[in-house]
Amino acid sequence: MRSRTLTGGLAAIAMMSLPLLGGQAVAAEPETARQAAPAARVLTYDASGAAEFRSAVDRGAAVWNESVDAVELRAAASGQRADIRVLADNGWPRAVPAGLGKGTVYIGRQAVNQGHHTVRISSHELGHILGLPDRKPGPCSSLMSGSSAGTGCTNAYPNAAERAEVEGNFAGSRGEAPAALLAAALRD
User: Fold this and answer.
1) N or C terminus of the chain: which is more exposed, having fewer CB within 10 Å?
2) Of 29, 31, 125, 165, which residue is the catalytic one?
């Protein structure tokens, strides 16, 4: 989202400034525009079953949208079949990927009751759906270190390596994630 927003904003400023400078506005070639800012793969999520964690799920999706350009998470419209279903339950948080960008996330109350941060849980579990495995034990600066960072960790943002991995997962292929990656991401 960062470069798409920046590119669009700069283009708008340039177009508005040209008449003031006596220049003439010329529309960009469609192919050139696509190369400069490739369209993100849009994944929809349904948080209607997330109960009290719905706002944490929305914030976790926003974290990913702020962090990467190749994929965008959007709340599904009413009645729309979502790529990602998010549910609340009394167990431990987990993700069950069904392919790259598809699956079910469970925001488990057990971790929340132990003091883990709800937005970090949401971002972490969405990270599994985006193709990232657990990286435990790990520091708080690693989103995919999950609960091993401790209850005091509130970092909900992926680090540079995690962002790069998601960018790579979605940059060229619209296909399924490798089976080994899916198996590694099944549980927190």
Assistant:
1) N
2) 125
126, 73 contact by CB (below 8 A):
yes
122-125 LR contacts (CB < 8 Å, sep 24+) = 122/53, 122/56, 122/57, 122/59, 122/60, 122/61, 122/86, 122/156, 123/60, 123/63, 123/64, 123/156, 123/157, 123/158, 124/93, 124/156, 124/188, 125/60, 125/93, 125/94, 125/95, 125/188
**Is 125 labeled as catalytic in the residue annotation?**
yes
Residue labelled with tokens 């944490």: 56
Nearest CA to 82 out of 42, 130, 131, 122 is that of 42
Distance CA 127, CA 188 (A): 11
Q: What is the pTM of this model?
A: 0.75
Hey, what's the torsion of the CAs at 6, 8, 11, 16, to 10 degrees?
-110
**What tokens does 96 get?**
């069950």
